[in-house]
Amino acid sequence: MKPGKRLHPGGSYWIWYILPAFLIYLTFMAYPLLDSLRLSLYTGNAANRVFVGMDNFVRLFTDANHASRYFNAMTNTIYFFAVHMLVQNVLGLLFAVLLTEAAMYARRIYQTVIFLPTTFAILVTGYLWKLILNPVWSRGLLNDMGLSALARPWLGSESTALTAVSLISCWQWIGIPTMIFMAALLNISEDLYEAAEIDGASKWQVFWHIKLPLLKPVVGIIAILTFVNNFNAFDIVFATTNVNGAPGFSTDLLGTLFYRVGIAGQHPIGIPDTGMGAAVATITFAILAVGSLVTLNATRAKE
Hints:
Elements: H1 15-39, E1 42-43, E2 50-51, H2 55-62, H3 64-100, H4 104-115, H5 122-133, H6 135-144, H7 161-173, H8 175-186, H9 190-198, H10 203-214, H11 216-231, H12 235-240, H13 254-264, H14 274-298
Antiparallel strand pairs: 1-2
Helix pairs in contact: 1-14, 2-3, 3-7, 3-8, 3-11, 11-14, 13-14
């Protein structure tokens, strides 16, 4: 380029800046996704793969063994997601509101305390909570505290295992929605608060009529992140129970079902069915795509 010559604003030179990231995305994101869609139309292993069309999807919903496991995992995943929305995100919003009104030194301390669990490895978190919730380890301390009724196998009972796993996950990741909500609240103009104070609005009225409407796009983003992460959840179940969704498949999620069917092989045969696993992954992707678009459209801020 000659000295003094400027690049035309409409030029295509910017393509070279995004090309490396675009190639990485195609290689590690787009290609595996499209290949998974292709595999869902086949059955058998890599050496003997046969095209079966939509048969994997039909068997997934009509075969007694596959259908019972799939709908059980879907129900558990929806419950897992609901607990995160009602506990993790609601408490995250509450903590964010309280932190924005706290003094600066107190805000930094509580920010650290709330966000610290997100820095733990999930396997470490799962192992620690397995010890805490194991009555063999905790009964003595709970008895001394007068809480002997809590000394029970929370992760070993079908009626409480999924709730316990969900709350463990909420405990670990509550720092993320808290920080996002807090950043959004601190970005709201002080002029709005001053006008509300002049009009005699209470704190509840300020939250309900000023803060919450302005947080609507952020609520949508957090809901989408929670939705995607929960429907892909695998590691927290693996760390606290096992990939079979013990006890009695009560903690079986779509992620663990996909792993057993498509990668590890499901009992009693133990032979991976990559086509069926890809069918599970494809349906999960469709659910995530539709749910994310609906949530994004419903929470989009108006001009």
